[in-house]
Amino acid sequence: MIEIFPDAEALMRGAAELFVEQAQRALPVRGRFCVALSGGSTPKRAYELLAGEPYCSRIDWSRVHLFWGDERCVPPKDARSNYGMTRAALLDHVPIPAGNVHRVRGELRPADAAEEYEKILNQFFGSGPTQFDLAFLGLGADGHTASLFPAAPVLHERVRRAAEVHVAELDMWRVTLTAPVLNAAAVVAFLVSGSDKSDVLRQVIFGPREPERLPAQLVQPTAGETRWLVDRAAASRLPASFRASGSKL
Ligand code: 6PG
Hints:
The mean pLDDT is 96. This protein has helices at 8-30, 44-50, 82-89, 110-125, 179-182, 198-206, 240-244; strands spanning 2-5, 33-37, 64-68, 70-72, 134-137, 162-167, 172-177, 187-192, 225-231.
């Protein structure tokens, strides 16, 4: 489903509302709400909104478990840290138990950080599917999502739940969830904002399937659903027929 919001702030409110809705669906059934958070700049405002009303008090934070779809291999206090961004925007402002925050230790050697995160995922999800109730994802202008970058060997990883990735174009190491984990999620929600994403958004959704070039196309949940929450600027190159049909399809 694609939902077009009038602007970035409305998109962020939509993302916060989706988080609350999915939490209220999962908690009665599963007794916990497991989320893989996205990094980058787009979701920060959504996390800030979740730390306030009317969202925060609608969530039983004691039963929320937060993971990250990917992390940069830097210490938490580094401005590039996805965990550091989330701590400042959300974690420092909500009553989530420390033990429910399952971060990638970006300060470790990449391979050690990935190995430790894999162990955390294995301990938490056991041998069954790594089923997140919700996975927020972003979309890079090059078609990447999480740290699944074009032509990267990790695109073909089907066994490991998490892996270290060297991103040559950024000269940076990262740890990422792998495609099978993202595809085991109950709901995957891409948050896409800004005109700089308009071309890649159209290619990913409406273009030919080329996951090596557009890794976001690898995300096709096996049993779950994919939602695209986009603002009007990002949607500006979607087929006119689609845009004219209204904001939800
Ligand atoms: C990261 C993200 C990455 C991000 C996209 C979009 O760690 O950077 O996981 O996949 O979602 O690069 O980034 P922006 O939201 O900053 O445009």
